Each structure stands twice: as structure tokens, then as C-alpha cells.
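User: Okay, second chain of the day. Same drill as before: sequence in, C-alpha cells out.
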Amino acid sequence: MNDYLKKRWTRGVLAGVMTALMAGLGSALPSAYAAGEIKIDEDKWISVGIGIRLVFDAIENQTGPPPASGTTPGTHYSNNFRIPHQRLYINGQIHKYVKFTFNTECTCGRQGTTGQNNLSFGSNSSIILLDAIGKFEFNEKINLWVGRTLVPNERAELAGPFNHATFEFFRTPFFPADFSENTPGSAGNNGPAGSAGLYGRDNGAVFYGKIHPFGTHFQYTASVFTGLRGGPNDTGSLMYAGRLQWNLLNDEENTGYYTRETYFGTAGDILAIAGNVQHQKDGAGSITLGRSDFTGLSVDLLFEKPLPNNMGVFTFNGEFKRFFANYGAAAAANPIGDCFCIFNGHSWTVLGLYLIPHEIGIGRFQPYVRYTSVDPLYSDRRAEWETGINYVIDGFDARVSVYYRYGDLNTKGTNNFGPNVVGDKVDSFHVALQLQY
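Assistant: Same drill. C-alpha cells below.
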């Protein structure tokens, strides 16, 4: 077969694979199917994969009909199935130093409320752009990604939902690219004005690399993004973001500047400390009621230790955030309108997990406990306990999670930090499944 026919045949196969996968996603029928990798030559290849996440929620005094007359408040539980994520992954290489990524998110079956996992898109079944990245990867020390990609910040964000130690990966307040609804110029119900990206992604450029001083491992990430458009930012200022991570023990092998929240012991001893910063002029508040610059700081810690004599794996994650967005109490009191009323204050969370060494059935159990505290400047403090158990079948590719929560984080909200916000402490129970390939 000559080169021309070989290229035509390869493109035909790829087109068929893409069409079939996109049709499967559009029908809203989740599947763990992946086409795998097609190699054209040593420097040219393409791979296709898929990830799905499903969860059942039972939440005290939440969505659903109110308790019947005479029923004690707090005894009614919602019963809802959600599909928070259905993703198609496409990666490839077209030159020794040039690669690309194109990922999508399906909003199938997800409509009606705002927030990280339940955005209102106006359609019950649509596919949105998640990542579109051109990658220039020269060596370990210097690389460049351009396009729509993750804004560098804390480990939880860079691990994302599919590489997080627990099923629900975000319990502290969002950075702008997660807080935004991606709808420039106006606010939706309880949503912010303007757009700063979606699912932690934005359009921009990221430089990153790694060096190994004195046997340790130091990674830098520096970036510039479009940031907030609309709302208080009528000056066209850009968002700047950076992250420094220092691994004192073993190194972490990940894609680009991405991270994970656990390696299930496969990476050996891990002790990683990182700091992050984001800044944008006129990146918060309201033009009419008060605006300000936005600066977000966070530090995070990962410690993972495979215990001797095959006694299991202990993992600890900790994170602290401090956001500066001093747009004033008047704007915070009226978050619907022209206000990008992002969180202003501090928050922290700690998470401990223990992976039991012996398989039971086809997997291993991993019990955990997490505590989260959120203290806004213009609103009431909110906190939450979570305890659960993961059933790890194949790392992040096949996992079942069962967990329980108690607190007022959901009832007071994760995207409204104005005064007069009220919410009771409630119980909730959850069962979740994650599959990807």
C-alpha cells in the first residue's frame, strides 16, 4: 500500500471511530468503550477514550416534594440519580515535539441548577468543549500548551474528577474558571455575571517544566488566560496563574502539569508541597455596586506511604485557600445581576484514606474521612464532615464509592457567599460509580 492510500485508509478508520463514539454520547447511553490507540508511524498516533461517572443521592430536606402535613421536618430525603460526567478523550501526536488534546463533556440528563456538577445549559442533551490544546513538548525542563486547558491552581483541580481520591472532588470554593457559568454579559439564576471559563478551563497559554535539585523534584507552571469577561471586567485585563510544586521523596509521573490525589501506593513514598496563585485586575464584584481585583492563593500537601510488610497504603491530602476579592458588602448582598461575586475569605480541607492491602472479590476497600471548613468574609461560615469507602477495582478506571455527609455546605451553597444566607445542617447518603479507559 503506497503512502497516499495508507493515509486515506487511516483517515477513514478514524472518521468511523469518531462518528460512532460521538453518536453513542449523543444518545446519552453511557459506555466504557474505548477505541484505543492507532499508530500511523513512530511520530504520529491518535488515541480515543471515554469516562463516565454516575451517582445516586439521598439528601435530607432537599429537592423533591415537601414533607407531608404533620411530618417531622428533616425526615424527607430526596432520591436522585445523576450523571455528572460523560467525557470523550481524544489525544494525538503529529510530530516528535507536537501533540494535541481534544476532550468533550456531555451534559446528558443534566439540567436546571447551577454549580460545578449541575450547570444549566438550556438543553437536556448537549456536548460541550472541555479541552482543545496544542502541545509543544520539547523536554522535561520547558514545554508549552496553548488553547483551552486547565488553569493551574490547587491539586484538586489539576487532578479533576477522574483522578481524585474521593468521588466528589471539590468541596472548597471555586477559582474563577469553575465559579463561572461560561455565559458572558449576564447572570443566570444564582449565577455570576460574566464568564471566566468552565470546568476549570479557560483559553490561554501554559509554560511548565521540571528540574531535580539535590535528588528532589521541582515543577513550575506559569500561565496567562483570558479570565473574566463581562461583569466587572470592562478593561480587558488578563488572568495570570502559577504553581510551584516540590516533591521531596519520589517523583510523580503525570500528563503535563496535571496531578493526582492518590497513586494507590504504586508511586512509593510521596511527599509533595505546592503553592498556587491567580490574579486578575477587575476580576470580581460589580460595576455598579463595587468591584475589585481578584487574587486567589492556595497551598496543598500530598503525603502517601505504602506501609511495610504489605500492610496497606496511607494517604493524606490537605489544602488551604485564601481569596482576596474585596468588592464590598453591597455587591455581595445582591449577587444576581452584574456581580461576579466570587468567594472572598479562607477555607481548608483535610482528607485521610487507608487502602486495605488484600483483595475482597475483584477489588480492595479504601475507607476515608474528610473535613471541610469554608469561612467567607460577607457570609456565614459553613462546614462539612464526610466519611465513606471506595471499592477500588482498577485504580481510577473502575471504582465504586459509598459515602455519608453531615453539614451545611450544600444548604448554604457553594456559589452564593452574600449575607443572609441560611441553611440547616443535613445528612446525605451517596452511592457512585466511575469508569474510564
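The two ends are 32 Å apart (CA to CA).

User: Thanks, on to the next one.
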